[in-house]
Amino acid sequence: MIAIGGVIGAGLFVGSGVVIRATGPAAFLTYALCGALIVLVMRMLGEMAAANPSTGAFADYAAKALGGWAGFSVGWLYWYFWVIVVGFEAVAGGKVLTYWIDAPLWLASLCLMMMMTATNLVSVSSFGEFEFWFAGVKVATIVGFLVLGTAFAFGLLPGHGMDFSNLSAHGGFFPDGVGAVFAAIVVAIFSMTGTEVVTIAAAEAPDPQRAVQRAMSTVVARIVIFFVGSVFLLTVILPWNSLELGASPYVAALRHMGIGGADQIMNAVVLTAVLSCLNSGLYTASRMLFVLAARQEAPAQLVKVNRRGVPTFAIMGSSVVGFLCVIMAWVSPATVFVFLLNSSGAVILFVYLLIALSQIVLRRQTSGQNLGVRMWLFPGLSIVTVTGIVAVLARMAFDYAARSQLWLSLLSWQWSLGVIWSPHWCDVPLIGLGEQYGLVERQSGKDRPPSAADIRRRLGLGEPPRVGDTKGFAVAAHPATAGRGDVLQPVAVRTVGEQNRHARPAVDVRAEHVQRGTVRLARAAAHVLKNRERREPAGP
């Protein structure tokens, strides 16, 4: 149910008009291509989730398959994507509310954000209850529209005959060329993401593997019915260049079919869809931020939960960014809606690319296991998926309208790795190192942070590392063991020289069973000691 609620939102009910205007009657082909890509990615993700359910989901899989940088990238990029979705849905919902009440857009959006934040803070069960009813309303609406639209197209409604002329009139089936079908994927795929949320929610289900399998079995039908089918009917009912498509294509279609009160009905449904996506978006963003904090890749405070098991600080942190998006809508209301639609498209493609690559690597490592969910025709379709994602990114690079969003998304990725990932582990204070990463000593039942001498002694660092040295480390196996006594594991660390004299230590793990948290701690300790003692690196 979470997957259904996350996949149908304002991106379909409102954003589909943008795709139809850009593509023409062939818009449903754009959604079909996006749907095929989403289905393949979901199948790959389902295989990994069924074998190893995790709240961190694909961030954990990327880290295991491709390395820490990939897990870090997937986690932060996916969180960024969903907080943008939260802001986007809040803006869309604010626009719907202003249809009924006279209020500033920013205030209406802010009220929706506060309501859904409160819902997520209560408990996981309250989130699930809201999502169940939201999803029910949306599914019933789409099914009803499909029934009415099909009856209208085949002339079964009074006063209307069979008419498919809009598919070829007004410039033909491809009025702007075949390339427009591919160019619009960036916008369309934004409205189709969210199905993968089920792999995050599966970790909290009583039977995670069964939950993933059930979601995989219905994803194809959901995409074909909800997206491809409804968009096809929109292009049959309305001319693709109709001005009515700009506001709400579903309202325009119902009005064209002679359904009384169509605007009131669809605006209520759109508001329900917005609240649903706000609800599931906050859930997803907060869980990903929680996992990042648990993996020591976000502030440790975010890992705390209340007595009901809700990650309060992670939810509030994600909500704050959503509020900032609402402020953007207030400052620039004429452009923020389309900007949010486009700017997140490339980010989710990067995440999907890393998911696909992770599945290929992990499948080769677990080929002998009895997997509950298997990717079809491996490795052929896996390679096709990677190729398809790369092709979309390449198309963006050569498309004037999408090029800026691609470079902006790449810059965000580079910024996350270069600004957050690398320096964070080089400049950690000595006391903070002990408090945050579990390098603590038990004394009278309390944890105390170690001194610089303690760290040198416990890590086996008599002197700061030199280029070419290999030293043995003994560090806490994982921060989760802090407070339960010292659990130590051996890690071999060597420093690697570069061509200049400012070489930085690097980690070479000799024991495969050592967890990533250990490696990160060893790297941080080596960097801190080097920086604190102000010792020059060895010369070339």
Automatic annotation (TrEMBL):
Transmembrane spans: 27-45, 66-85, 105-127, 139-157, 177-198, 219-240, 265-290, 310-330, 336-355, 376-398
Keyword Transport: yes
Subcellular location: Membrane
Boundaries of every Amino acid permease/ SLC12A domain copy: 1-404
InterPro entries: AA-permease/SLC12A_dom, Amino_acid_permease_CS
Keywords assigned: Amino-acid transport, Membrane, Transmembrane, Transmembrane helix, Transport
BP terms from Gene Ontology: amino acid transport; transmembrane transport
Pfam families to which the protein is assigned, alphabetical: AA_permease
Membrane topology value: Multi-pass membrane protein
GO cellular component: membrane
Family classification: Belongs to the amino acid-polyamine-organocation (APC) superfamily. Amino acid transporter (AAT) (TC 2.A.3.1) family.
Protein name as catalogued: Gama-aminobutyrate permease
